[in-house]
Design brief:
The complex is a heterotrimer.
Chain A (H helix, E strand, L loop, with lengths): L17 H9 L3 E5 L2 E7 L2 H11 L13 E6 L3 H6 L2 E5 L9 E2 L3 H16 L3 E11 L2 E6 L6 H9 L4 E4 L2 E5 L4 E3 L5 E4 L2 H10 L13 E4 L2 E6 L3 H5 L7 E9 L6 E3 L3 H11 L3 H4 L1 H13 L1 E7 L2 H14 L12
Parallel strand pairs in A: 2-3, 7-14, 14-16
Antiparallel strand pairs in A: 1-2, 3-4, 4-5, 6-7, 6-8, 6-9, 9-10, 11-13, 12-13, 15-16
Helix pairs in contact in A: 8-10
Chain B lengths: L5 H7 L9 H13 L3 H10 L8 H31 L8 E3 H8 L11 E5 L5 H10 L3 E2 L4 H9 L7 E2 L6 E5 L13 H6 L2 E2 L5 E2 L2 H14 L6 H15 L3 H14 L2 H15 L5 H7 L6 H15 L6 H20 L2 H19 L1
Parallel strand pairs in B: 1-7, 2-5
Antiparallel strand pairs in B: 1-2, 3-4, 4-5, 6-7
Helix pairs in contact in B: 3-4, 4-5, 9-10, 9-11, 9-12, 10-12, 14-15
Chain C lengths: L12 E3 L6 E5 L2 E6 L4 E5 L1 H12 L4 H12 L5 H17 L2 E3 L1
Antiparallel strand pairs in C: 1-5, 2-3, 3-4
Classes of the chains: A alpha+beta, B mainly alpha, C alpha+beta.
Chain lengths: 330, 356, 100
């Protein structure tokens, strides 16, 4: 039985009334569905619950008992840490070794806990450190190092009609060869925060509603989270085969440019972006070989989000018939 | 000693997995993950042919752990292959310890198991020679601070861990199985002498010594977190080695010879009580005199049960205390008291700085 | 420094797990996955040729030199010899070949 049929679309967190939500989130937690995972979330701090709901309010939850992939709890380790000098500690049940953060930025702990679980405990899917989006049968993987702007680019595309799979964790079903959506809070850092606010404001008057407060003073500077577009959350079960691989390079002083790369280069960039390639082994090799065979590949260098989106769409338009994918290298 | 613990029940009788409720699965999987035994459950379910009858989500989670253990086995085997290549042309006796030995011997306890490093043992006077060979073949000392370097060099029983930059499996080159400062440190030459040569040229301990090593490792060494995993490993070994009557005849005399009787007592005691391991009556009778006095025994039991079965006590705090209690105890057994105080103090300050 | 001196020229190398290797190739390279190590390597056509020769049968480096000389029908220059030696050393380090 596919996992998808076990959840009810109408069961969005936001359908519960506030006091019920608060009671459950702070009590035994709520089992919810995030992409292919079932996660129990328990949050002891009120401010963290509020920030959490800002992002995840439209995500489905389970009313009946469900086998969980993960459990995550955010709490103070003792009364002092809960109330007097509140410090949010994250327990992921996976021997995590995260450093507690002040409770006012507890949302960051929660998201780090989510990341830890998927990075450490998810070997059944091939995972790419990449932004992934989809549209009309086109599955686009954008593998990149931190700081390449891939989060911003993936989020940017998703607010221009693309389905956001993930700004950071691309997941591939090894049997079906399909990308699995894993929409979560988009993590924006420092200067990308005003960029995305401006970007979302062009489409939505209530754009502030999509963002959590900014959290200054994290190990990575100021962080702010963005809720995926409503459509992407609705389409959380819609999978797509990958057929484009684009390596994004953000350089504020560059001329926007599409640069051809070899398939070998694209192959190794995908391998290098995968955290669990080495664990999965043979099937990971065959899957990536197949993706690269069937995909158009290139590199884009861009100075701004606007130019990046233009370049991506131009490259895809140029190779718009997916059936031809892989037959020439442009 | 009755334990109400679903993970232990499932390990003892994997067929009950078929009837678990969703809530029971969550408890069972949580504890299995924390104890490093999820891969083992997956193997068991496949082995008895019930995997397809389990909830889809459970199969999905299990497949993740299957990749984990397969990958760990492949990495350890490959590291052994690379060590063999580096040592080519020498006829030095190199003994594979723990996971490496279990894998190369194809022992039943390796199923679903994850090993993170490779341990080998070599005669003390050949240790510099071995280090030299590994460094020339591309392994590097894992980046550790001066204090750790000094600690490894002066006191314990192994070189600072070596890691090859292409691979990330760390090799621990031992010249003894316990720190030379430990009052339990055995005359390891006896264990090397009786070790057995395998087809690939490496040696492994005799069966008695393999299990005794696992036992002293659990009950004296610093590895308390995976206590349940160690115990089931010993349970598997009693079952596998015990088919040979010679094993039982040699076990206690060997423990006496090496000075491991107390640890053996604990292992037999806990394995029998927790997993119902089939131990011959004469062994139970013969090991009894080596048990602890009642007070020590009760404390030990309390602590071990707390670690093995975290949902028995008052959850978090009890578990934490128990872990740290056992941790201190195992260090106490490893090093003379003055050294211990120094080591823990420094460890504490380093952690403190890291937390800040 | 001539890397020819880095290798024992009388050592006979053979390919270890030929049958298990997985291959894929793109326009400019051959990519090899070795299930024993779990490692992925990229080989250009030159390196692929050396591996092919060793797959045909165990050979010393001197053998490889003469095989290549037959293929290109002239004497190998020192630079090419060095490249062959380097490749053999690399293959050995990767664990896809080893001395018999």
């Amino acid at each position: 039985m596919p996992v998808a049929s076990r959840f009810h679309n109408e069961n969005k967190l936001v359908k519960l009334n506030d006091s019920e939500l608060d009671k459950r989130l702070s009590g035994d937690g709520i089992a919810m569905e995030v992409g292919p995972f079932s996660v129990n979330v328990l949050i002891k701090f009120k401010n963290v619950r509020e920030d959490f709901l800002k992002i995840y309010r439209d995500f489905p939850f389970y009313d009946e008992p469900i086998v969980l992939d993960h459990s995550i709890s955010v709490f103070g380790r003792n009364l002092f840490r809960q109330y007097l000098r509140p410090q949010a500690f994250v327990e992921t049940e996976m021997n995590n070794d995260t450093i507690p953060l002040p409770a006012k930025i507890g949302m960051v702990s929660l998201e780090m806990g989510f990341n830890w679980q998927v990075a450490m405990g998810c070997k059944q899917y091939l995972m790419f450190h990449a932004g992934v989006v989809a549209r009309d049968g086109i599955g686009l993987i954008m593998p990149a190092m931190s700081g390449s702007g891939k989060s911003t680019l993936a989020a940017g595309l998703s607010f221009r009609g693309w389905q956001l799979h993930s700004d950071e964790f691309g997941l591939l079903d090894l049997d079906a060869g399909e990308l699995i959506p894993y929409p979560r809070a988009v993590s924006l850092k420092n200067q990308s925060i005003p960029v995305m606010k401006e970007w979302v404001s062009r489409e939505h008057d209530n754009y502030e509603d999509y963002f959590t407060p900014a959290y200054p003073g994290t190990p990575k500077g100021t962080i702010c989270y963005l809720r995926p577009p409503d459509q992407s959350i609705e389409e959380m079960h819609k999978r797509t085969k990958p057929n484009f691989v684009i390596l994004p390079i953000f350089d504020p002083n560059s001329e926007p440019k599409i640069r051809p790369i070899t398939k070998t280069m694209a192959f190794f960039r995908l391998v290098a972006s995968s955290a669990n390639y080495g664990d999965i082994g043979e099937r990971a090799f065959s899957s990536i070989a197949k993706i690269i065979e069937e995909s158009f590949v290139c590199e884009i260098i861009y100075p701004s989000l606007d130019t990046a989106v233009e370049l991506v769409e131009a490259f895809i338009a140029e190779h718009s018939d997916p059936k031809k994918a892989g037959q020439d290298d442009g | 000693m009755m334990v109400d613990n679903i993970l232990i029940d499932v390990l003892k009788k994997p067929e009950i997995m078929e009837g678990l409720s969703r809530e029971q699965w969550n408890t069972c999987l949580r504890e299995a993950k924390m104890s490093g035994l999820a891969g083992r459950l997956s193997y068991d379910a496949r082995d008895i042919g019930i995997i397809e009858k389990l909830p889809a989500k459970v199969q999905d989670i299990f497949s993740s752990y299957d990749y984990n253990s397969a990958s760990s086995t492949r990495k350890i085997k490959w590291e052994i292959n690379r060590v063999k290549r580096a040592l080519k042309g020498s006829d030095e006796k190199v003994v594979l310890l723990k996971g490496g030995a279990y894998i190369e011997k194809g022992m039943s306890c390796t199923v679903g198991r994850v090993s993170v490093d490779l341990d080998i043992l070599i005669a003390r006077n050949r240790i510099d020679w071995a280090e030299d060979i590994f460094l020339k073949a591309g392994w590097r000392h894992q980046v550790i601070n001066d204090y750790d370097q000094k600690f490894y060099r002066e006191y314990p029983h192994e070189l600072p861990p070596l890691v090859h930059p292409d691979r990330y499996i760390s090799i621990d080159v031992h010249h003894n199985i316990l720190p030379t400062t430990s009052k339990l440190c055995p005359d390891v030459t006896k264990m090397i002498e009786t070790s057995v040569k395998m087809e690939n040229g490496f040696y492994v301990f005799s069966n008695e010594d393999i299990i005794l090593h696992s036992i002293v490792h659990q009950f004296q060494d610093g590895e308390v977190r995976s206590s349940l995993r160690n115990l089931i490993e010993q349970h598997d070994m009693y079952k596998e080695f015990g088919k040979d009557e010679g094993f039982w005849q040699k076990l206690i005399p060997r423990a006496i010879e090496l000075g491991f009787t107390r640890a053996l007592y604990y292992s037999i005691h806990f394995a029998k009580n927790i997993f119902g391991t089939a131990i011959p009556d004469h062994i139970i009778a013969d090991i009894k005199p080596y048990g602890p006095n009642i007070i020590t025994g009760a404390i030990m039991k309390f602590m071990v049960m707390g670690v093995i079965s975290p949902n028995l006590g008052a959850k978090g705090i009890a578990r934490w205390a128990s872990m740290n209690g056992l941790y201190i105890r195992s260090h106490w057994l490893r090093m003379p008291p003055v050294l211990l105080a120094r080591h823990l103090t420094i460890k504490f300050f380093r952690k403190f700085q890291a937390d800040d | 420094m001539p890397s020819e001196e880095l290798i024992n020229k009388s050592a006979v190398y053979h390919v270890v797990n030929t049958a298990d290797f997985l291959w894929t190739s793109f326009e400019d390279s051959n990519i090899l996955y070795d299930p024993a190590s779990g490692h992925t390597q990229v080989l250009n056509d030159f390196a692929r040729e050396i591996l092919d020769l060793l797959e045909d049968g165990p050979k010393t480096v001197s053998h490889l030199f003469s095989e290549f000389e037959e293929i290109i029908e002239k004497e190998l220059d020192p630079d090419l010899k060095n490249k062959i030696v380097e490749t053999v050393i690399n293959f050995d380090n990767m664990g896809i070949i080893e001395p018999v």
